[in-house]
Write a structure and sequence with these properties.
With about 375 residues, the chain is mainly α. Helix 1 packs parallel to helix 3, helix 2 packs across helix 3 and helix 8 packs across helix 10. The protein has 12 helices and 7 strands. The longest helix is centred in the last third of the chain and has 31 residues.
Amino acid sequence: MGRSLANDSRKPDPMKARYQATRVSVDLIKRFEGFRPKAAELPDGRWTVGYGHTKSARAGAEISEADADALLIYDVAQVVAAINAWVFSPLTQNQFDALVAFAFNIGLPNFRRSSVLRRLNEGSFLQAACAMEMWRTADFEGERIVIDALVRRRSAEMALFLTPMEGYIAVPSLIVVPRVDEQQAHTAPGRATEVETPLDSAIAAAIRAEEAEPVSAAVAAAAAITARLNAILQDGEPEAPAPVAEEALAGAPLPPPEEQPALVAVEAAEEAEQEAHSEAEPVAAAEPISFAAHEPLMFRAPSTAPFARRRKKPAPAPVLVLMGLTGLGVAGAGPFWGFSANAPGHLPIVPDAQLAGMGVGLAGVGLLAASVYMLLARLAGQND
């Protein structure tokens, strides 16, 4: 008889593991947990040290990176045993490493009752990867909101989970054209918060990013990209990227916009290109596009309404006027014919000529209304 996952109360046995974690999962955990050399107190009264270790952490404890790495491997072993006991579907090494990092972050009790585990045991691996993204919120300052660090952490775990061992499958953009998935419209958060967790304080707590450093590493990286773009636009040949100084990552302020030559060069190039397009004569045949290094490439954003219908070309105005006059004539001639068909001296053409005449008149009124509507629509389009 098969055993139920919900009624399985046996503890995971590390000695019977089908899969083992590699340094990939350990490095992924270390990257997002961060190294804490001195023990800090958690809000629930426990203490943490190293890479999120709590079992043997005490007040005043200090640890080296080598010892913290050993404690992390000990904590990961418990997660490895649990995943081996609870997941029944066959996994690749990348999928297993991603699950280890994911379960380490959300906790084994949450992982066991999560939809990620349920989808895995169903064999729905893509749905399981998408279900990881649900775990991106946290209670911060009295409310539950989306945390930017958790979004990045889930993205890294999902990318590792979906990386095949045999290489990527080719999906050409011109053959499999991406479309908007309306079912995922609700996944975009209405509000998100950037937080930082200082690793050198005696209390383990999260603070808002703007309270820590005014300039982040992303801003420093953007400054390096701006300098590289400036060199490409001026010299025409790409140069090796210069290493970002540690002072820039520490929060050095950026120069004002008027002192950024790369942005000025880009704006001047765009204005020159717009003037050249406005003054140039129309070209009879298509010319090949030159992708020289000194020419800025301009891309248009894709349409946000991929399923919008194309507007049909309206009918010519004389045709619409002729159609309206025809409808007006039919609307008047129909009732006149219907009431005069049964007059003395005329042979009845149809049994009920009056009813038929009214029907013809209504058809003429409809034709007249349609022509007026299309004519007004054409005039409105010309005004636009």
